[in-house]
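Case study 2.
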Amino acid sequence: MKLRNKIWLIVVVIIIAVVLGILFSMYSEQVKERNALSDRLSRAQTLLPGLVSNRQKLEDRLTQAESSLAKSQAEFAQSVDSIEYDDDLFKIANDCNVDITKLTSSKPTDKKIGTVTYSVSTFVVVVTGNIGDILEFLYAIRTGDDFQLPWSADVNNVKMDVEGGGATATINLDIYGYKG
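Prediction:
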């Protein structure tokens, strides 16, 4: 029986040694990981003040850029609308077989009708073509069927000069665009 007790003792010692070896290995890995994390933490803490400073500078630049953008949008929004109206007018002229020889516009102004605010631009459009096509162009402007943008036009005055087979019309109109 003594031999059996010695074998059991050896087995228990081996099991304890294996368990201690595994625990030591796990502890060693955790110590290495903790040291690595500690190093990363101290590097991050070193970088943090610089990053906070950079963030503040970037936020200041963002505020300045947003302010500049708002100022630019306020200055150029009307001209963009005018260009888009011009595109529609040229498309309508093309569809009606007339040529726009001159196109001028005024700076848009706001006009409030009830609770709705409209952007109003005054345009002077000079077109050439035959009389029927010019009348078709005027009708298309008044009905707004070919408009790509949500706007409507109010034709104020038309002056037409007829020469031979062609005509030239000078059209004064107000374009109302919804401002939202």
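The longest strand covers residues 116-129.
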